[in-house]
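User: Show me a protein chain along with its predicted structure.
Assistant: Here is one chain, sequence first, then structure tokens.
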Amino acid sequence: MIPVWPADLPQRFRAADSSFGFGDGRLRTPMDAGPPKVRRRFSAVVKPVTLSWRGSEDDVARFERFFEEEIAGGSLPFFLPDPRRDGRPLLTDDGVVLLDDQGRPLLNTAWWLCLFGETVPTQIPVTGLLMQVNMQLAVLP
């Protein structure tokens, strides 16, 4: 069973400190003259993502338990709600929110299968008991 990002940890991340990269599956071959030849080497590539969130010391302790125990020090994959798409309303082509039969908006459900990136998460004290956690992830295809 693949672990899931804990529901008691922040589900929204700080946009100002986050970045979403494209995976690079290209192969560049240098030529004798002119630009290199570029072609697709892989069709399924890992996408680099940097996310940041703020929480209390209790939140950070819960995160540490998730990292150390549930995903074995960051070595196991886990599911994380896609911070760009999960929970957002579905829209028609005209931008109108789709509603169910009771008039409630239909919400998108989107998940990532992730691994922690090359560096382990860092914690930065912000104010008093508030901490900021920065983490690099690799979103798997």
